[in-house]
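haha ok so turns out i had the wrong file open the whole time. this is the CORRECT one, sorry everyone. sequence first:
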Amino acid sequence: MSKTYKTSHYDLIVKMEREHFWFQSRNRLLAHIVDRFIPKRAGKTFLEVGFGTGVVLAQLASLGLNVEGVDVNAEAVSIAKRRVHAKFYRSSLYSFIPGKQYDAIGAFDVLEHQSDDRKFLAKCYQLLKPNGLLFLTAPSGMWLWNSLDEYAGHKRRYEISKLLDVVNKAGFNVLYWNYWQMFTLPFFIIFRSRKKKLSEYLSVPPKIINSFFLFLSYLELPFFLRFRFPIGSSIVLIARAGLPTTTV
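then structure:
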């Protein structure tokens, strides 16, 4: 959800997301989480903020949700319309006035792009129905920060204490959180240290390596909602609109 994203970045993402282990495993993980936290989806509305190419919206629509998306980038809207039947809004979240509230909102690797993340979350809160659900993913650990974060337009990576604090202060009750991509983290660190350009980062690894990483990522899935992983390159969080409380 960034005006600074170049058309070439979207072109690279569209080409890679059908094959790249990270996109494939994230989509499967999000479907798993949504299935668990929204078991009765008929008639439920889901708004994705910063939907990019629409790949997650397509996944959510396949689960039976009524999906909509808002993104500030015209290229995102154009690409997503070709991928999934949904209602799209080209708008900044802060000026977005749909005239209704949603059962659930998702912001997947979007929060780290916001200058004021608390303001962003407060707006999400306003757009949710009472007891509505918020689904978030964000990169973890400032110790992993390098030039690729800058190229991607990140303002920060999140320590879990910081993310829990800002989500709670926005009025949410955190239901669950966990790290993701624990098994691939050592390779992630090595890979990022060798890649100096965003175009290099947005490329599919060689097939055998990509398949191996996909296997490692899928290994996490059966345990994701059962055990708290000690570390990972991303954080996944689910929260409910309500009074902030001590997190689980």
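The longest strand covers residues 128-139.
again sry for the mixup
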